[in-house]
Amino acid sequence: MKTAHSTHSSGTIHRRGFIGAAGATAALAAGGPAAAAAGAPYRQPPLPYSENALEPVITSRTLSFHYGKHHRGYVNNVNELVKGTDWAGMPLDQLVVQTADNPEYAAVFNNAAQAWNHAFYWNSMRPGGGGEPPAELKKMMQDVFGGVKACCKKLADAAGSQFGSGWAWLAVDGHGTLNVLKTANADTPLARGMTPLLTIDVWEHAYYLDYQNRRGAYVAAVLDKLINWDFAMRNLERA
Questions:
Q1: Which of 22, 74, 213, 232 could lock onto 115 through a cystine, CB 3.0 to 4.6 A?
Q2: How confident is the model at residue 13 (pLDDT cuts 50, 70, 90)?
Q3: Is 224:131 a contact under the CB 8 Å cutoff?
């Protein structure tokens, strides 16, 4: 698994102890804590909006394939891979962390991480998103990047410069530093002890039906019209 590449990291913000993205996004983990405790299979969380709610930025056709085929496939795959193992019923975020950076468990990691990343991605957007972040997050962006526009440019640069498939993230590390980073394929900040705040999917299946090879146009539209700063703030508050 490739290492996540940080495009900017400075200006440490000291907060109460970081407990990782498990606390920030427990409700998003497929299956949820109760299902994990009971040993139930992971379940694909429902979309937080209708399939046409993100139009015209992301069409219902794209969302239908992306959520209904790709995301669902990862959830089904990880259920098959952990069936009958000690991992069965483990919270999804913990499974991601425990199987990271171990080639022997690459198939489990890739499918578990993709299931988790996608659930996180859906919540990183909302109809009528974009605009100004909440005050505390906005101040952090100002302190670290020089402002909201500069932070968005870092996110766009990370998304645009990711070679091949991957993700662009806004996250905080264990020292409380706000970071923009990109990860390849299924890789995720969870695997390196960071707390993700939001993400943009730059796998081609996320945008190709609507934008073809114009990844930059897709990313710009997500940042301008869909990005869910309130979700990022909730994750920051739980960190």
A1: 74
A2: very low
A3: no
Which residues line the annotated binding site for Mn(2+)? 66, 118, 201, 205
Q: Which residues pair with 200 in a beta bridge?
A: 168
Domain-by-domain residue ranges, the chain?
A: 1-30+57-239
Tell me the C-alpha to C-alpha distance, in Å, between residue 185 and each of 77, 108, 162.
16, 14, 10
Superfamily of domain 1-30+57-239: Iron/manganese superoxide dismutase, C-terminal domain (3.55.40.20)
Binding-site residue positions = 66, 118, 201, 205
Output DSSP code: residue 190.
Answer: G
pLDDT of 23 reads: 37
pLDDT in tens, 142-199: 999 999 999 999 999 999 999 999 999 999 999 889 999 999 999 999 999 999 999 9
Q: Are 196 and 29 in contact (CB under 8 A)?
A: no
Residues 104, 100: Cα–Cα separation, whole Å: 10
Amino acid at 74: Y
